[in-house]
Amino acid sequence: MMTRALLARATPVLACLGLLAVWQAASLVLNNDSFPTAIEAIRAIPSILGDKEALINILASLRRMAIGFGVAVAMSIPLGLMMGRSRTVASFFNPLLMVIYPVPKAALMPIIMLWLGVGDIAKMLVIFLGVSLPVIYHSFAGAKAVEEKMLWSGAAMGLSSAQRMTRIVLPAALPEILTGCRTGLVLALITMITSEMIARQSGAGNILFNALDMGQYDTVFAMIIIVGAMGIGLDALFERMRARLVKWSEPQFDIPVSFS
Amino acid sequence: MKARALTTDAIFGVVPIALVVAIWQALVSFGYAPVTLLPPPGLVFARLAQQLVTGTFQQEIAATLFRLFAGFAIAVVLGVTIGLAAAASPAVNAVVRPLVRVLAPLPKVALYPALLLLLGFGHESKITLVAADALFPILLSTYYGASMVEQKLIWSAMAAGTPRREILFKVVLPAAMPSILTGCRIGLVISCIVVFLAEMITSTDGLGHLLVTAARTFQAVDMFVPLITISLLGLMLNGALEALRAFLLRGFPEV
Lengths: 260, 255
Prior knowledge:
The structure holds two protein chains of two kinds.
Chain A: H1 2-30, H2 38-50, H3 52-85, H4 87-100, H5 109-116, H6 120-144, H7 148-156, H8 161-199, H9 204-213, H10 217-245
Chain B: H1 2-29, H2 41-52, H3 55-88, H4 90-103, H5 112-119, H6 123-147, H7 151-159, H8 164-201, H9 207-216, H10 220-248
Helix pairs in contact in B: 2-10, 3-4, 3-6, 3-8, 5-6, 6-8, 7-8, 8-9, 8-10, 9-10
């Protein structure tokens, strides 16, 4: 049993190593100047993280991401829960959200930049927009699936409607909400990279695409590893927190459905 | 009764959209936003209507749609195949699971520079990016749907003498169809988003390229047009998928 649990924990690491090995083999076979080997790319990582400016840039990106994500989650969960519990609220917001859904949020960047400049606020706003939709949808779905009987019992025991929302609907919908947040987290990272790539002023996305323009291919691939590690790391961290918060619920998807 | 509730819903739902347009118009007409930064909605929609009939604009849409469909089709084929295989065979599952665990939370956009270097600046790199992004939701929901198929159904089919291979296509696939279609729907929206982003980053045609060109020349009106177009395309494709779903799932209990 112990070895099994250990094995289950080790498989993602093995998968990473396997992918790196495939990369190494592919680059050796292709022998292309613009496709460095995995080892060369990994060697370039310390020089990026050792560069103070680059490190500050990456940390600033993460800070923007955290703020955008935090504000989006704080606003989307109440909205989603209300949509789930009230038909009126749902039919009010649903079509609007449907129209916004297929618009790439990072594509709003050029327009928002016209209004707010290239500063932090524009980027945080874009991250906020990107994270909101999945969180709203999952909270909506979670709140909609709450059993009526529990609400009736709550009402019979004298809970006000606000209390019913926080004491019954919120906990019952929590697993679904957290699934939404997990998707939102990956999305926040994606939107962060794309927004910086479009604004080209600072941040991790800027380092990545500047290196591409200047033909520093090992930096490009090293940055890809760094960003990828951020995604996987944040996701694993969130999964731990989630597992603790909703111990009682069986995870439906144990892998997030991520998208930009 | 139900139909009437739906119409009220529809009327109700138009309100916020109308409200957004009204606020937009108000911002311009009361002079809070200069026309160069925020063109009035009438101007934008007029430009959209004018552009839609021109051949060049239609070509841009065609370029975007081609990449979108190619990427999405690859994602559907790969996602459904791998998802079914992982649900049917423990050996495949043992390989696919950890790989998906690592690759799904990876921001695929960050891979785009690598794809550019490997596949060049043409269609291939963009189609690959779209496929990579749309693949995981389809794969996961196929896997989920296929592994949730009621065991009794499979047993009955086996008892009736259905060969193993046919069980996969005649029992598991149809039973997993609702879940697969949900995955496809998410994948489709993702495809719309990603194709646009990829075209914004490097392209010589397509809707994303239109937006970037307009942004470089500060033509605010032309910046809104591709955005609205992709939103409309997304809605139309979603509607088409919804119709397909209704057709494929006819006779299913309500899902």
